[in-house]
Design brief:
It is built from 1 helix and 28 strands. The chain is mostly beta strands. It has a 4-stranded antiparallel sheet, with no helix packed on it. Strands 4-5-6-7 form a 4-stranded antiparallel sheet, covered by helices on one side.
Length: 324
Amino acid sequence: MRFRSIGSIVLAALVLGLGAWPAAAATLFITNTKSDTISVIDTTTFEVTATIPLGRGKPNRVVFHPDGKTAWVVYDKSHDLGIVDADSKKLVKRVKIGGNPYNLNFTPDGRHLLVLDWSSDASNDEIIFYDLQADKIDGRVEVSTWPAHSVFSRDGSKLYVSGETAGDVTIIDVARREIVARHVHGGGDAMGLAMTADGRTLYAAAGENKAILKIDTATSKPVAAIALPGVVHEATLTLDGRFLYTTLRKANKIVVVDTATDKIAVTIPQKGYPDLVTMEPTGRYALVTNRYADLVAVIDLATHAQVRTIPVGKAPHGMALRPR
């Protein structure tokens, strides 16, 4: 497989011009790990409007660049990244960064790609900072085992990273590329992170501890724990912040927490291993990948009831909403 530098790809995209899309457009990309594709969903009609071939390598996570022009895909088996032109809906190129990338993020200004890299013969468990303009790695921060999910503080100065097997949350100063705090809760299979709109509270899935932690971002310490009836994976806030949607994959459930009371509001049965959750832009619905059922569930947030399912490819996992 031939790889090209990321900087040249980004420059080429700018020169060619990737075009604009209607302001009302709402597009969700779903990676299908066993179909080697992306299913493109229109979140207004909840229909699959396109299927993007990605090539072999077990595509898993997908993240949009903040400008919405490209989507970036992690391949679990081939350990490389794919870059997809969001307008033409075509894979542009595959590139290599890190030894065993698991997940991605972008700095809010879009300048740096962050690679959550798992240990391998060629790498450590670390966060790789890749400068897209300079076309080079300009920082690495070694973290605990298996960095899984990440979220920025509201001002972009700090990065919060969950450690899947270590059961912890690591807090990184983005400018200094240094760890400033770390909280160990000890719950393996820990992944999901959700930041409140005011930036004061971070919800962190504590996995096998069967709980969601509420972490005060001012002190970097937990102030409460919300007990859940199973191993908790994902944690996503509704756009109004009133509810926290969590997935209990092994129990085939979504558990909805009322953030005003920290109590369970409702439990929603799922068909097959509910994984990731995304809120569509109008704030009316949640969309949830069901990996073993080959579908995306649509949940009405007013009633917390599943109103339909969207058939996609085989083993859907990653999901990313295209920025407007």
